[in-house]
Amino acid sequence: MSQTFAVIMAGGVGTRFWPRSRERSPKQFLEILGQGTMIENTLSRLEPLVEPDNAFVVTNRLQAEALHKLVPSMKKENILAEPLGRNTAACVGLAALWIQRMDPNGVMVVSPADHIVLNTDEFLRILRLAVKVAEQKEALVTIGIKPTHPETGYGYIQSTEEEIDRNEFRPQGVYRVKTFAEKPNLETAERFLKSGDFFWNSGIFIWKASVILREIELHLPDLHEQLQDIRKCIGSPKYEQTLEHAYRIIRSISVDYGVMEKAGNVYVVKGDFGWSDVGSWDEVVRLTAVDAEGNSIKGKSIVLDSKNNYLDAGGRLVATIGVEDLIIVSTDDAVIVCKKGRSQDVKEVVDFIRRKQMNEYL
Question: Rounded to an integer, what distance in angstroms lies between the CA atom of residue 189 and that of residue 43?
Fold first, then answer.
């Protein structure tokens, strides 16, 4: 019987969560919504599904040591430190190499480190179903979230009504994937919602390590070539040097674009378990309780004649007078003030800081 492995993708910086999220302390290392860091919560959710030694985290070298301190129970060899960021295709390919060494038939549950799930029991039920599909169909499987509103911040997955063999999974919400769609404008998102056959793309994937490596070989032969060089050196003194060399050659491409959109045997499992990718401060606002004036306040503050604001004061005292519909986030060295609905643009602030080489604020 094949083993199930968790692969947590934790190499990003979370630029839309500046100034709280920084290169050395990114979003996934923060308690954005309280009650533990996002990566700790992600690992905890998967514990009933995966043995402790079968959980891997893929991060970058800058964050690897901090991650080990944050999750000291994880074996160091299960923290895979990429020398350079090369998007998710390289990330899952590297993890698949390690997993295939442990179990040639191993199934990978690949998840971002910085999502939230409100209904863990339903989440685990869906994952167990997805693992079954991945094993029986030798397929690439993703989790599609039933949309509740015309969201423009997510990619979408369209399912087909094509019959599945013997119809064994259809009553449980398993469909073949028809197409993937990029983040839409509002008009297109409204059309997706009305159609009934589109799901939000959760970025959660399930597949056998052997299957994803086979698909990488087929659709991303250049990545496959570098992965083969890495495979030969795993466990040897040459591993880090080979990894560094390979990552300088590997091009940056997502597994969605590089593999999923081109592969034929792709399924989506419908999920409805209180999911959010917490992709912006606006999403935090949506998930946070408010007081009688519509304000959500974290930290020391004085709020006068102010309504419908989100205020994260950090270690400072922050005061507001006569303001509405603002997101205010303060840290020791930076403050951002943003109108609600514009927090996706926080990334532009980080881009500006980078262009001006104000690296102490990154």
Answer: 32
Residue among 5, 29, 8 at smallest CA distance from 17: 29
Partners of residue 57 on adjacent β-strands: 8, 79
pTM: 0.91
Domain boundaries, the chain: 4-279, 282-361
Category of 305 on φ-ψ map: left (φ > 0), alpha (ψ -120 to 50) or beta: left
Burial of 26 (0-12, 13-18, 19+ CB in 10 A): buried
Gap between the Cα atoms of 240 and 243, Å rounded: 5
pLDDT value at position 162?
A: 60
Nearest CA to 17 out of 277, 205, 234 is that of 277
- Amino acid at residue number 229: D
Beta-carbon contacts of residue 260 (< 8 Å; ≥ 6 apart): 140, 142, 177, 180, 205, 266
Residue 163's pLDDT is what? 45
Give me the pLDDT at residue 32, please. Answer: 84
Which parts of the chain have pLDDT scores under 70?
162-171
Name the nearest CA neighbour of 261 among 348, 198, 146, 178.
178
- Please name the helix (run of DSSP H) or strand (run of DSSP E) that holds residue 264, with its range, or none: none
Domain 4-279 in this protein, CATH class = alpha beta
Euclidean distance between CA atoms 338 and 345, whole angstroms: 9
d(Cα 184, Cα 200) in Å, to the nearest integer?
A: 11
Residue-wise pLDDT tens digits, 223-268: 999 999 999 999 999 999 999 999 999 999 999 999 999 998 999 9
What is the Cα 211 distance to its own chain's centre? 21
